[in-house]
Amino acid sequence: MKWCVRQVFALVLVLLMAGCASMGGTGAKGGADNLSLEKAIDQSAEEIGAELPKGTRVAIAAFSSEHENLSNYIMDELAGALTDGNLEVADRRNLAYVYKELNFQMSGDVSDETAVSIGKFLGAKYVITGQFIKAGDRYRYRLAGINVETAVQESSTRLNVTNGRSLKSLIADVRQNKVVAVSASYGDSAQGKTAGAHLDRGILFATRNDFEMAIAEFTEALNLDPDLSAAYMLRGRALFASVSKVISMEDDFSSFSSYNTGGKASPVQQQAFDRATADFTQAIKLDPNNAIAYSERGRAFSNKGDQDKAIADFTQAIKIAPNSDAFYTNRGIAYSNKGDYDRAIADYTQALRLDPNNATAYYNRGNAYNDDKGDYDRALTDYTQAIRLDPNDASAYYNRGNAYASTGDLDLAIADYTQAIRIDPNHANAYTNRGLAYYFKQDYDRTIADYTQAIRINPNYAYAYSSRGDAYAEKKDYDRAIADYTQAIRLDPNDATAYVVRGYAYYDKGDYDLAIADYTQAIRLDPNDAYAYNNRGIAYNKKGDRPHARADWTKALEIDPNNQYARSNLEQFK
Question: What is the DSSP letter of 28?
């Protein structure tokens, strides 16, 4: 009997709720009152699932609420409910990446146009945006569904959610990360092998720097859907990254910094850049307004050495998206590679007008001022600003160290090289240049220690061997100096300077025949080396061969009329 009373009470309660829903209708689909949040999510998912064919790929583009954690919770629960309803949901873990890729700000409120762009990128047919906003003593739950192909909002769901004890408790727990969605089973292997699923997995692999798997997933996506523009672009980027020295990678795959070959790519790199270029070209054919694809193809052209085509692509990207600081930065790099430093500086400056926090633009403009224009003061200012924005950029410290060294401030140079090494303990060039700074300070033991460390990192670093040899020679340890010069010559047999400095060491040891042989080889490699002629003349003179000595000094003056050493020697030994 007690059971029957409860059933009657439950029936009355249901009828009362139905009555409230009828009285409080919003004029939109599903206008119901006093639902729990979970019921509202399930009901909205059921309504969307009833309208779309089974297996339709859906993207949840944005959801606004009073707290980011709450928005994420609702989106994950909604994704799970949609997946349970036999729809394919684009993996939400890639959403931050897509926003950055398309240069949108992450926000719960997005326009229909933005939502459509996100849907196209993810290969979705239908995009959902939503809100969960407090209205008086309850919450308003809203969803909008947009058809990506027509860009028309096809559905709108509005439901009222009771602000009861359970919801308040849930919101408090979600805010403190005590509760996470449990029903979101999308994105795993159980979802099926659709083009969209492969695209999702490819993005996830790429963000983990597993470019081989990313390329395989993007390829599978394209096998299933040859018109998936994003898969071409992302496969091209993964190909590009797979053969580049990636300096830094964003938390997502929207961008990465890499060593720019400036057209000196290896055969393996060239092949990858060619394949990447083909993919970017296909992405552009499918979407002629894809500014990012133009920019990425420009990067590939730049690394292949075709700076003119690179500049043309960056220029096209700028025409499509004139407010992108990244495109100006990339074009500036291409201009620098071409040797047009004034235009490069102009592009970096424009990038900084658009984004004063663009550390990469400061860094590259610093390089243009430092290496190309010799304007060390401006270079130092730019490097310092780049470091302020990105204190963990070892390259910025390293290059600022170079600028300080160029101005003669060796102590500040050493401090910057040291900081670069702290950030990147395998920065061989930082050890080498710090060693050179110590050399000029006549601290030869520290010089030798730094060159030794550089050699440990890169055993084929010919310059480090040669430079360590110089320090040993200064310490009059000629045998070790000669051993290092010999190793440098083995690694680089065409380095005329290495023969010259080994000739110095042989001369200082009193082995004039070997010194003459090294100077002679240096002259074969560089017939215009006035110093090699002058020094060979000195060695001949030590052997008492005055005619050969005078002939060499005369040749040195012929090559360099301002060579005071050769002139003095000729006058002294008339």
Answer: S
